[in-house]
Amino acid sequence: MTYRRAAIPVLAGALLLTALLWWAGASVSVLHLQGATDTLGGQAVADLQYWLSPWSYDPPGSAGSGGADASRYRTLHETAMQIRFAALFVFFVPGALLLVRRLPPVKGRMPALLPALWAWGMAAGALAATVSAPWLIASNGRGSYRVLPQLAGLASSGQQITVIASFVAAVVTVLVARITTEGAATPPLTSAPRRAARLAATVGTAVVALSLVVLSYESVAASIQTAWVSGGLLAEPGDLLRAWLLLGGWSPPVGGPVGGSVLQWALYRLADVLLLVVVWWALRLLPVLLTRVTVPAMAVGGFCATAIGLLTSQLFQCAVIGADAGGRRAWQYLNGALGGHVPAALTWGLLAGLAAVTVLRLAGGGAGAAEPVPSAPAPEPAPADRPEKPVA
Prior knowledge:
The protein has helices at residues 3-26, 28-31, 34-40, 42-52, 67-102, 110-139, 147-155, 159-180, 194-215, 218-227, 238-245, 258-289, 295-325, 327-337, 342-362. The chain is an all-alpha fold. The longest helix is centred in the N-terminal third of the chain and has 36 residues, at 67-102.
């Protein structure tokens, strides 16, 4: 698929994603009206404000101290949001362009392209929030206080609404890409060596499991939180390290009836197993689905697999909580957890994709491009009429 064909749907998806999040942020002012509270209820309004405020141009009420300072803080906040939306567009385009070119929505690849674009939209949101965080920290008037913990919190903010907006943008991008690929020659699905593909998927999944199982264990996570303690502006990096390194958090079952406690603990750990299964299956299929097995495509694919695995795990845990303690507690969990750990998924997903493509090439399964679409053999030209030799 050429860049020209891929650019049209990617630009449409990037513009739609940016517009949806801008519209979501602009809707925060409506939630401050009394009619919104009377109609939706106080708790629903508070939840919506928590989802939408990270994308709003309206600064929090505590920003500034009044007078000229308040105007400066508001200007800083507006600058931060301009950077955030511009970065959202800039980060979405190259990753989505790579995915649409390497996973065009034809010949069985559409079911893979949709979740991949969905995941990359979440990555663009997290990266945009991280890039604009320094201006937001300064606009709150606390630019010299606990900078790294604030940066960690802002990098993970607004992910709930980003999950929804990214899904809508991914659907539109896939539909437009389906139209633009009509008539284009696309390589068919290839057959990667099974042993090499399974080994590559296993190694990539082990990289993700290093964070999910080892680093996310309670005592190890606590050590990461407190290992690097220094003074000055860059003090307390533990929160930032946890945000970019930990895909979860777990500890041994404790308290309550032994049987029930162990069963509940096992259900939550089943969500972690489900995440690893999704990652392994996606990495196993990537060499078959990609039109060309390249390092960037496998790295981005590794992140997309990890992010979709995280979403699957979060929805499963929400279902477990809902069955255990009712819908209200399940909503509280989903309200706080949906779209979480995307920065860590970026770190470990990219590493998993790089590890998988390395193993795949070493094992002889990364041949590169897929076989071209076979075409009908051209008819042999008729022999040219030759003049007869005169008989001597």
